[in-house]
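The record is kept unedited without comment:

——
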Amino acid sequence: MLAKVLSLKLPSSPTWYIVPAAAILLLLGLLATNGVISVDTEAITGFLTGEFALYVLVGLAAQLVDGALGMAYGVTSNSFLLSLGVTPAVSSASVHFAEMFTTGASAISHFRFKNINKKLFKGLLIPGVLGSITGAYLLSDIIDGNFIKPFIAFYMLVLGLIIIRKALQKTFVKNKTRRISILAAAGGFLDSIGGGGWGPIVTSTLLGQGRDPRYTIGSVNAAEFAVAFASGITFMLFTGVDSWKVVLGLIVGGLMAAPFGAMMVGRIKRKPLMLLVGTLVIGLSVRTILLSIL
């Protein structure tokens, strides 16, 4: 499997890296205006330390998982950052802001590798954005995201079991997907409230209904760009972002990994891919439930 991925060539068209490159330039402009980056060589050297390299690796690993399985960028990156000593508040804000850029690269990559169902993508887009903005606003002032995390985790645990059952079925049965707009709005809302959940909730539900893993993961990941961008801007307006070193590290690592995650999702067969997704959802759900109890 790894040999196949490494032997693949990236798309010859430059489209997939033009937007990520522009995103990095935009971020560098923001950093410069905030006094984080200057023409002072010593200041730049102090910014690009070994600690920064660790954040790059975190972003790379999280985006590989998210791009290939359609979920768990937030959980993966948050887990690594917390283990590196980053505080929960800084970690959450950094991940939300970094996702504005990494999900853009992932969306472009999935479009380039033709992993998109356009009808599904359009159905997820607007409701997901509205849900994410609402959730980010409420979390800034009203709702405690930690309170509802166990309930979301239990829902995802059930979905994980359904996905594994579907994967083990000998015949593939696709049920008609209903109320996609409601699912997308709920996924966007809970993603902002709980610090993650767009992929696990939306992807898991759609896969549980028997949809094709490749096009489901690609479409959900593509729509996630708009969802992440909307929530990221909302968080910036109401809470601000100060952890620029963490943010930039996550972005650089995520942009590096995005094309490879999109390639992997088109190469893994339906059954092992659904088993991987189901196992991941169950594991993350159990982890969240245990952390909320202990």
Notes: The chain is about 80% helix and 0% strand. Residues 1-17, 36-41 have pLDDT under 50 and may be disordered. Residues 15-293 form one domain.
